[in-house]
Amino acid sequence: MSALDTTLIADPAQILGVAQDVFAALIDDGEVLVHEGVAPESFDVPVTAWVDMLRADSPHGVRTMVRAEEADAHLVVRALLRMEPDEPVGEEDLVDAFGEIANVVGGNLKSLLPEHAELTLPTVAAEPPVLGREMMVAQTPLEWRGSCFVISLWMLV
Amino acid sequence: MELNVLVADDSRVMRQIVIRTLRQAGYDDWQISQASDGQEALEMALAEQPDLILSDWNMPRMSGIQLLQALRAQGSDIPLGFVTSEGSAEMRDQADAEGALFLVSKPFTPEAFRDAIDPLLA
Questions:
Q1: DSSP class of residue B14?
Q2: Which stretches of chain A sit within 8 Å of chain B by CB?
C-alpha cells in the first residue's frame, strides 16, 4: 500500500502558517508572535511531543513532531495556562499542554491531506521512539518570544 | 442566557482553554461541567441533561463521534457541537450526518465560538 501523500503538508511555509495560527489563537490573543527561526544543532534537555497520522490499510504513516528545550516548553505551558512567569510547571501540565500543541498542529496538517487518515493521541517524552526507518520530509524551526521550537514531519515506513 | 454546558476533552489544558474562550466570547453566565473522555461525557450527559455538549473528537475510551452516536442510540437529543483539531471535510460531513450542530476547529477564537453558537441561541 502506498504512503500518505504529504505533498501539501511537507512544506515549511505551510507548517509555519499552521504554527502561527495555533500560537496566535491559543496563546497570544490573536497576535502573531511565531516567526521562522534557526534550528539548534542539538537540545540539551529536550521535550518532544508527537502525533501520528495513520491509515488503517497501510503500514505507512506521517508523524508531526514538536521539539524544544524543556525550559522553552515550560514557557508555552505557562502561556497556555495563564500562569505567572516564575510559577513552577508540573510534569502533568507539561505533558498535557505540550502534547496539545503537537495535537493541534498535527490535526491541522492532517486536514490538508488529500486522503483520510486517523490521528493518534499525542505522546510526550524527552526523545521520540527510534523506529529505524523513519524519514524526515520537512522541518521548520520557529522562534517564539525568544524561544526556539522545531516542528518536523516524518514519513513512517 | 444561562445554560448548563458540558465540555468533553481528554486534555485538561484544552478544556481550560475552551472554557476561557467561551468566557471571552461572552458566555459568562454558563454553568460548565467537564468530562475527560467520551465515556465520562456520556454518563454525565445522561445524568445531568446539559443544554449543550461541546466535545473533542479524538479521545481515549470513547471518541466524540461515538459519544454522539451513543447519545442518539439511547434516545437523547442533547445538542452537541465538536471542538476538534481535525476539521477535514470528511469529518464535517460525518458530524453533520450524525446530527452534530457544528464543528469548530482548533485553534479557535472567541469569534469562532460566537459564529457557531449565537445562531442556536437566537
A1: H
A2: 21-22, 24-26, 30, 77, 80-82, 93, 96-97, 99-100, 103-104, 106-108, 110-111, 113, 116, 119, 121
User: B10, B63, B28, B111: which is closest to B80 by C-alpha?
Assistant: B63
Best residue in A32, A104, A109, A112 for a mutation probing chain B (most B CBs within 10 Å): A104
Tell me how many domains chain B contains. 1
What burial letters (b/e) apply to B56-93, b meaning 16+ CB within 10 Å?
bbbbeebbbbbbbebbeeeeeebbbbbbbbbbbeebbe
Question: Could you tell me the domains of chain A?
Answer: 12-156 (3.40.1550.10)
CATH number, domain at B74? 3.40.50.2300
What per-residue confidence (pLDDT) applies to A156?
87
Average pLDDT, chain B: 95
* Ordered mean pLDDT values, 10 residues apiece, chain A (157 residues): 74 94 93 95 95 85 95 96 94 96 95 86 91 85 96 91
pTM value? Answer: 0.92
Cell 511537507 belongs to which residue? A10
Facing A30 at nearest CB: one of B86, B87, B109: B109
ipTM beyond cut 0.90 = no
